From TrEMBL:
Organism annotation: Photobacterium arenosum
PROSITE patterns, A to Z: HIT_1, HIT_2
Keywords: Hydrolase
EC number: 3.9.1.-
Protein name (database record): Purine nucleoside phosphoramidase
Sequence motif Histidine triad motif, residues: 99-103
NCBIfam families (UniProt xref): PRK10687.1
Residues annotated as domain HIT: 6-115
GO molecular function: hydrolase activity
Length: 116
């Protein structure tokens, strides 16, 4: 069993977060340290530590991350100009919280994917 994370507590509303979307499969909330004018984290309600732990049974849930991202981009007014979706995996990928999550970033030009 994967270890519970701060995201699990946000899903259950045990700690405060600026939740902008929640359904039976995913929860989305504003990042507390935004890197762009719009920076929302979209997470599955099921604890899946990394992309390496995604199973075939998780496909509907993982697809929901993308459909919710599209809806939120439209609601944030960033869909037309464009936005970035990022999923980090493990330390070299920059993952900090081991509950898979998608970053939705936009509201300004974001520059190149990687620097250096």
């Amino acid at each position: 069993m994967a270890e519970e994370t701060i995201f699990s507590k946000i899903i259950r509303k045990e700690i405060p977060a600026d939740v902008v979307y929640q359904d039976d499969l995913v929860t989305a909330f504003r990042d507390i340290n935004p890197r762009a004018p719009s920076h929302i984290l979209i997470i599955p309600n099921k604890l899946v530590p990394t992309v390496n732990h995604v199973e075939a049974e998780d496909e509907a849930m993982m697809g929901r991350l993308f459909t919710v991202a599209r809806k939120l981009a439209e609601a944030e007014g960033i869909a037309e100009d464009g936005y970035r979706l990022i999923v980090n995996c493990n330390p070299h990928g920059g993952q900090e919280v081991y509950h898979i999550h998608m970053h939705l970033l936009g509201g300004r030009p974001l520059g190149p994917m990687l620097v250096g």
